[in-house]
Specification:
112 residues, alpha+beta, Alpha-Beta Plaits, two-stranded antiparallel sheet, 4 strands, 11% strand, globular, binds iron/sulfur cluster, iron-sulfur
Length: 112
């Protein structure tokens, strides 16, 4: 089992999650984060910290695509453990449907 970052993180990236993870397993893309599934110890601490409710346990159904994306991107994006400011328009994008098709970017983020 692991926790998975899902679609609503895209363009929200509040980063509250990175500061609470005891094993520093968040990785940063240009406009979202992912969790490395092999590093996550399933503690669940990050899930309630996400203002966008974008972290889910992979025991929920229908998350296969997101689990694969978390695995793939965590191997290409830099590790991040320090919270920075959220995008200024994060609130406007919270809950917007179709963010993956419209805005997903494979470009790596800044990292620590
Ligand atoms: S707190 Fe939620 S929305 Fe913010 S970066 Fe973490 S997973 Fe993404
Ligand atoms: S469940 Fe725990 S170990 Fe996994 S990403 Fe969240 S805080 Fe880190």
């Amino acid at each position: 089992m692991t926790y998975v970052v899902v679609e609503n993180c895209i363009k929200c990236k509040y980063m509250d999650c990175v500061e609470v993870c005891p094993v520093d397993c968040f990785y940063e893309g240009e406009n979202m984060l992912v969790i490395h599934p092999d590093e996550c110890i399933d503690c669940g601490v990050c899930e309630p910290e996400c203002p966008a409710e974008a972290i889910k346990p992979d025991t929920e159904t229908g998350l296969e695509k997101w689990l694969q994306l978390n695995l793939d991107m965590s191997q290409n994006w830099p590790n991040v453990t320090v919270k920075r400011d959220a995008p200024p328009d994060a609130k406007a994008f919270d809950g917007v449907p179709g963010k993956f098709d419209a805005y997903f970017s494979p470009t790596p983020g800044q990292g620590d």
